[in-house]
């Protein structure tokens, strides 16, 4: 929760409370079935695939409920993923300056070799194999993003 200001916590708490229910002990929880609507109120619009994945992660015990602290952890994760995607998109666009929707593997390999100037030839070749840059092929954004995020 250190990531969020007191105002942000209140905003997220307000959204949580709009959709929450109460158990016998009057503890609030969010039914995972209401997760999409709640996320939309705070500016997230996950795809069906993303929603399924985050619901499973957020409801680790499988009881169909998310407590406030789990919800805050989820928001933190979603913001981190958005930041990573934005950074990956910016990097991708630097290589795809013509806006073709792909990056040539050779161009990416040359850039990596430039960055790794002082690395051994073996290290360079390991990177090429790891990211499958041996052949000159087209790398679209999703694959590029996976490369960037995996590297972190």
If you had to describe this structure to a student in words, what would you say it looks like?
Keywords: Calcium, Luminescence, Photoprotein, Repeat. It comes from Clytia hemisphaerica. The chain is mostly helical and 152 residues long. It folds into two domains: 6-84, Orthogonal Bundle (Recoverin, domain 1), CATH 1.10.238.10; 96-150. Helices cover 61% and strands 9% of the residues. The protein has a three-stranded antiparallel β-sheet. A two-stranded antiparallel sheet has the order 4-5. A hairpin with a 5-residue loop joins strand 1 (21-22) and strand 2. The longest helix has 28 residues, at 68-95. It is elongated, with a radius of gyration of 21 Å. 12% of the residues are buried. The model has no long low-confidence stretch (mean pLDDT 86).
Task: Compile the SSE list and pairings.
Blueprint: H1 6-19, E1 21-22, E2 28-31, H2 35-41, H3 48-58, E3 65-66, H4 68-95, E4 102-104, H5 105-115, H6 121-130, E5 138-140, H7 141-151
Antiparallel strand pairs: 1-2, 2-3, 4-5
Helix pairs in contact: 1-2, 4-7
Task: Describe what is shown at a glance.
Keywords: Calcium, Luminescence, Photoprotein, Repeat. This protein is mostly helical.
Distance between the termini: 22 Å
Biggest sheet: strands, sense, closure? 3 strands, antiparallel
Task: Outline the low-pLDDT stretches.
Answer: none
Quaternary form: single chain
Strand content: 5-15%
Helix content: 55-70%
Strand order of the largest sheet: 1-2-3
Q: In CATH, what is the homologous superfamily of the largest domain?
A: EF-hand
């Amino acid at each position: 929760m250190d990531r969020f200001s007191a105002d942000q916590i209140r905003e997220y708490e307000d959204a949580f409370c709009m959709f929450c229910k109460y158990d016998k002990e009057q503890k609030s929880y969010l039914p995972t079935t209401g997760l999409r609507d709640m996320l939309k109120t705070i500016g997230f619009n996950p795809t069906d695939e993303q929603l399924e994945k985050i619901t499973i992660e957020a409801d680790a015990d499988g009881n169909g409920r998310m407590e406030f602290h789990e919800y805050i952890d989820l928001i933190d994760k979603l913001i981190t993923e958005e930041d990573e995607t934005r950074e990956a998109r910016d990097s991708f666009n630097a290589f795809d300056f013509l806006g073709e929707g792909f990056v040539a593997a050779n161009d990416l390999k040359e850039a990596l070799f430039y960055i790794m100037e002082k690395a051994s030839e073996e290290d360079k070749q390991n990177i090429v194999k790891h990211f499958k840059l041996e052949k000159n092929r087209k790398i679209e954004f999703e694959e590029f993003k996976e490369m960037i995020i995996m590297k972190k």
